Records
---
Amino acid sequence: MTVTLVLGGARSGKSRHAESLCAGDRHYVATAQAFDDEMRARIDKHRLDRGDQWVTHEAPHNLIDTLRAIDAPNRTILVDCLTLWLSNIMLADDDWRGLGEMLAALLPAMQADMVLVSNEVGMGIVPDTPLGRAFRDAQGVLNQRLAQVADKVVFVAAGLPLVLKG
């Protein structure tokens, strides 16, 4: 079992790179919610691009329970993405710190190989709202915590992976 964390900015190629790391019995855990037509179109495009070689699980909130339920040896689980999961958790006013710690504790115990996708959001403009700044900070804390437990951390920029750990 290995845990790989793939980080990058929006449209950096991180999802494509993460998918390339997966083989065998592949399970895709989607965290996005389609609140509008544009997001529905994005989700549909991701599904088409992946093809039918993946088993897809929707987990906009219940990521930890979903991972426990689908964990198995000789399986690869791709979570795309932790940024949307975190935003869902924060907008629901759930305990993101506690859930992040639960996720960090669960990952080393998983039997499946894990590939996690997350945005690096702290490299751009400072958000102009308190919620935006809180989200940016929370994402940075979550990424750091998961990088601690990951066997490998990769940063993707312009479609090019740079190994940071492992």
---
Amino acid sequence: MSEKVVPVVTRKGNEDARTGQSGGAVRVSGVSPQHTPATKIWFGRVSNEPGFRSPPHHHGEAETGGYVLKGHGRIYFGEDYSEYVDMTEGDFVFVPPHMPHVEVNMSTTEELVWLTTRTPDNIVVNLPDVPDEALEGYRRA
């Protein structure tokens, strides 16, 4: 006899925070193996307070898709994190597996909020930090 399969809703305030974190990038999941029957996807909300950034990191084998709900984000990547892409509300971004990067909130007054999905899970591999001055155009609040 098979078990009945039904949609699982994670209510606001009941998201799971037991996930990989990196500095100023705060991740909470709404759909993940940690608290739903999901086995091949992590889907959650990532936020950065004004002027905050993550340390360098990558997401292992995971492919990452992001959508900016609010704010102005920048992802630094490449040699010495000298390259970057900017995103604002309504933009989508794809970050390939194993790509070292730094996620920043370019505003010193407004929160940055992303919706992010990864497969198979929210893998976060933190790397050695870099000084703020190495990130062109970045400044803290």
